Amino acid sequence: MDFVSFALTQCLSALSQAAILFFVACGLTLIFGIMRVVNFAHGVIFMLGAYVGYTAARISGSFIAALIVAPIVVGIAGIAFERLLLRHIYGRREGGSDLLLTFGLAVVLSELIRLAWGAQPLSLPAPEPLLGALFILGQPFPVYRVFLIALGVVAGIGVWQFLERTRAGLLIRAVSQNPEMVHALGVDVGLVRSGVFGLGCAMAALGGVLAAPLLTAFLGMGTNIVIDAFVIVIIGGMGSFLGSVIGSVLVAFVQVIGTYYFAELALAFMYLLMLAVLIVRPGGLLGKEE
Amino acid sequence: MSQDTRRKILKAAVAASALSAVPFISARAQSKAIRIGIPTAITGGYALLGSQAQRTCRLVQKMVNAKGGVIGRPVEFLYQDTAGDPAAAVRKSQELVERDGCRILTGVIVSSEAAAMLPKLEEWNALFISHGNGDGRLTAELYVPRFFRANTSAPMGARALALYLRDTPQKKFMAIASDAAWGRSSNKAFEEQIKKVGKDLVDQVFAPVANKDYSPYITKIMQSGAEGCYVALQGDEARAFYSQAQQYKLPQRVQFYTEIVAQADIKVLGKDAIGLMGSSRYPITYDIPENKTFLEAFRKEHPNELPDWTDGEMYQALMVLFAGIEKAKSDEPMKIVAAMEDLEVTSVKGPIKMRKCDHQGENQGFVVKVAQNKNFSEPVGEIVKIYPREQITPDCRKSSYST
Description:
Helix content of chain B: 40-55%
CATH topology of the largest domain in chain B: Rossmann fold
Largest sheet of chain B: 7 strands, mixed
Radius of gyration of chain B: 24 Å
Order of helices and strands of chain B: HEHEHEHHEEHEHEHEHEHEHHHEEEEEH
Shape of chain B: globular
Oligomer: heterodimer
């Protein structure tokens, strides 16, 4: 394997990993940006997406159905959680009640998943056309990873355009800047918050479905990825959409290249990167220092 | 009635009631259940292995109690959730011992949990028999008299594979292991063994626990020029690795040899698992009467499932324990310890001897290849080679082999 083909396949591997990280981190940063809620349940929501996707694919026989059904179901569940529980603590967050509530949700949800689907891992394979491998400069590279990169790019541009070009996106940005003013203008801020929480959960669920062919669906599959997502959000800047994109790519590259050259220190590199960013820019690369 | 008379009547009444209670207490003690504590992973990432240990305990409880129990007493299992955390394992075991009166412990999932519990056994006056803890150090550097390991340890699994690889045409190997106590222990034994049989270990890598992306490791394996790859990963790590390796078409270039062939992984991987070779801690296809009895009972209880290595090893550990209790005629921990030393039992994996010098169970070594089998609904490990227990068990109180 020559260096060019090696470097190219490693870059593509990192980008495919970044795509999955982006789906989780983007939802996390949107929720924080609008609601100032640190969602500890985000990893379990990612896992729920994989399990719901498994059931959808099993019933319909289609992986595409899993990609559509899981974000919708989990997004609706997220909206219900926000409307029923989360909204009651917005005014009294001094004691970290948002952390406690979302942590509680994580515990309850993971136990409910275990009771509903059992402890056995579940298989959600990629569809037949995505199972093969492309040969890039003579080196095999999975078609499924190319699909992940493409979907990540499409989703990234889609969310960016949604936030920048639509009225709903304008409202979301406005609520993140000054919710009181937006409310005074007659906008239902509660509805915007519910929508954003649902969107964040739907994106995490989509990430869960996409990760399942690489990892299988199993209890605890969201534990580590949510730590990566928190690191990405801190690197990119809390609440910054573009920051989450850049953070996902940086973390994925550090993980892939670090694992290759210094396998036993790969985890440390991610935290060193975070530390370096925080020293230079305490609010993250594109975040505001508060 | 005078005060003296009243006192005499009271004393007589107390004495009479005490005397009448003696046979009752004795009878109650006779039928009192033998309590076995299972501090296992009910929640968290190891919940699958914990659920397998629990289902086999329930099955064994049903089977044994239907035949009159052990030394004429019923067997009762009490479960506590450790979530695979060593600190929780110590805390929950202490509760089982002190609050629930369980002086016998088993069903612990993670080797680091077992290692944390060993120094406390003396204080708890408890006995601990491992059904699946693989870290070689548990019966070597960390040896304590109250601990027994009925299962195949990590060095024993690696040894069986190395002996098999000695006779294969492949010369160059690579190793990938989980960066945990079990993975390190397995890899160390494999490295030692593979070099001893004259083969070349070109590279070895340790993946962080719960690693997600194996593409850098897969690239390394492809670059190494190895013909075979030793894999000491299990559970979600193993499934992620094999799924991703399949996407890179790696099995077409390199033969995988896994430290543990797990039925749960085979079930999820489906046809992608066919051709995978490895060491088996419980070969489901082993054709002996003891295994047939277990398989029949298991499939009657769980018609849609097949027992995994955890089930087989749990069953074996309990059979060894009950044989020890029968021999000791008591459930007192130290009496069982004495009875289990050099005890020989034939279980689902064939003959096993709990050797006295370090309490490691001498197990046979099995190398299997995953294939379709007409008797099972999903692919299973077909036995390729069985190695005698003398060749598989390490030197006394060591994780290594002098021969």
